[in-house]
Task: inverse folding
């Protein structure tokens, strides 16, 4: 393992004012997104949609440090025959790959899931590296509800995550470590803080046990936020303060960068929260975004599968990328959203 090189990639992924585009929706997820805009989820439509994003050259080169791809996409070619990976590289961005194989119910833990995909991972990683991937992603999901999460669920997930991270570093690929505490429930922000802190402490302990070099990872956490169904929603300032408090208590300074997931927040909330977090700096790590929905909801809707909407959809993507780029520096202002509308 060349740790200096891994650290260089991790720092490039979280470079000032840049963040990651999570475009790694699995087949089921992209179908749900396409269903919502009335577009059939064919291989060609998925290619056209993602090609449109990667060809938004200005947005990509100014604001997007890397793109997380799904297995299908990393092998796909654009309409003119150029590999999609080349489009990403040409824009000065790094290709990355989702390597987990989704989730399965965890036995004896009703309602809880464990992420799978470790079998054969050691064989798959060198092929992805050869295809251009310089980082990978694995997402664990921890739900909050009555009696959950269980310790068994947290342990199973952080153990698999650390095994994945160690395998990635051996293959000279930077692992994104994403232990996501879901915001789907009715819990308040303090319950989210409590569970997030517990999960992150367990996660870093397990990374240490598995000898993962923290200088060569990127952490992709949830923000500390009330559940969507909670009547008591926290202010932007409270989300920022509680998120930073938990992260400072759990994430060693050896980690070069943190790139948040958006987790179902509205586009603007995800930007405002990231901005407020960075305004609490200086922080021990570079803090940016790795958004799926909060970067793609607007362009997806604008595109709606119609070639004549491509330019407008690329503008919608460029706008969200620019807003999040400012937020990654703590320089976003709400009136910039109104001006664009
Ligand atoms: C793009 O969505 C990613 C893949 O999800 P599935 O495996 O469920 O299809 C997802 O892991 C994503 O990278 C993270 O959740 C961050 O995306 P959001 O939308 O939460 O910012």
Result:
């Amino acid at each position: 393992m060349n740790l200096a090189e891994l650290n260089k990639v991790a720092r490039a992924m979280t470079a000032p004012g840049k963040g990651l585009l999570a475009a790694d929706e699995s087949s089921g997820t992209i179908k749900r997104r396409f269903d919502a805009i009335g577009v059939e989820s064919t291989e060609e439509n998925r290619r056209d949609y993602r090609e449109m994003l990667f060809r938004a050259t200005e947005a990509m080169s100014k604001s997007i440090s890397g793109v997380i791809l799904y297995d299908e996409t990393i092998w796909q070619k654009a309409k003119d025959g150029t590999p999609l990976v080349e489009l990403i590289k040409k824009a000065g961005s790094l290709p990355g790959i989702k390597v987990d194989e989704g989730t399965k119910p965890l036995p004896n833990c009703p309602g809880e899931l464990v992420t799978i995909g470790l079998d054969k991972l050691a064989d798959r990683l060198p092929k992805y590296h050869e295809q251009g991937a310089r980082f990978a992603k694995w997402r664990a999901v921890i739900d909050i509800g009555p009696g959950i999460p269980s310790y068994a669920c947290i342990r199973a997930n952080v153990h698999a995550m650390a095994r994945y991270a160690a395998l990635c570093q051996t293959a000279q690929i930077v692992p994104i470590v994403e232990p996501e505490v879901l915001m789907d429930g009715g819990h308040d922000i303090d319950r989210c803080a409590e569970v997030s802190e517990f999960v992150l402490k367990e996660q870093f302990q397990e990374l240490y046990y598995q000898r993962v070099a923290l200088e060569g990872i990127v952490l992709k956490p949830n923000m500390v936020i009330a559940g969507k169904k909670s009547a008591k929603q926290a202010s932007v300032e409270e989300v920022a303060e509680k998120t930073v408090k938990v992260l400072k208590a759990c994430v060693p300074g050896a980690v070069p960068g943190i790139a948040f997931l958006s987790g179902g927040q509205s586009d603007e909330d995800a930007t405002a929260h990231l901005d407020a977090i960075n305004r609490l700096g200086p922080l021990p790590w570079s803090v940016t975004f790795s958004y799926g929905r909060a970067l793609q909801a607007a362009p997806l809707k604008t595109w709606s599968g119609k070639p004549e909407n491509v330019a407008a959809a690329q503008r919608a993507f460029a706008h969200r990328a620019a807003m999040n780029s400012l937020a990654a520096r703590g320089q976003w202002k709400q009136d910039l959203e109104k001006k664009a509308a």
